[in-house]
Recover the amino acids of this structure.
């Protein structure tokens, strides 16, 4: 098999790359909170969309999406770690093109 085999996502599947800085957080007081710290509540994560299947309607390549990391399926491609999920598992999309439907929140 070739080293750089192309990948095509099927149906409504979305391939995302989790933000590197999403692991650690810094409190307002400057304390570093590691990703392994249990918060008691589920924490959502941001990721960049790398590829989408032909039936994905609200998500496009290079969008930033908010999703539940506990429900993820990880896959390694060419030494990089990605997450595969269904479009319905995306909670929010952050992109310039959604400006008309915006909620007033900006990243």
């Amino acid at each position: 098999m070739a080293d750089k085999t192309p990948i095509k996502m099927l149906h409504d599947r979305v391939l995302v790359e989790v933000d590197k800085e999403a692991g650690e957080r810094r409190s307002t007081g400057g304390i570093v909170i590691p990703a392994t710290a249990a918060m008691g509540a589920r924490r959502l994560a941001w990721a960049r969309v790398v590829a989408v299947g032909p039936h994905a309607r609200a998500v496009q390549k290079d969008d930033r999406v908010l999703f539940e990391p506990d429900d993820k399926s990880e896959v390694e491609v060419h030494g990089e770690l990605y997450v595969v999920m269904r479009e319905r598992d995306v909670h929010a999309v952050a992109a310039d093109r959604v400006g008309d439907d915006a909620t007033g929140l900006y990243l």
Summary: The first strand starts at residue 13 and ends at 18. Residues 72 and 83 are 6 Å apart (CA to CA).
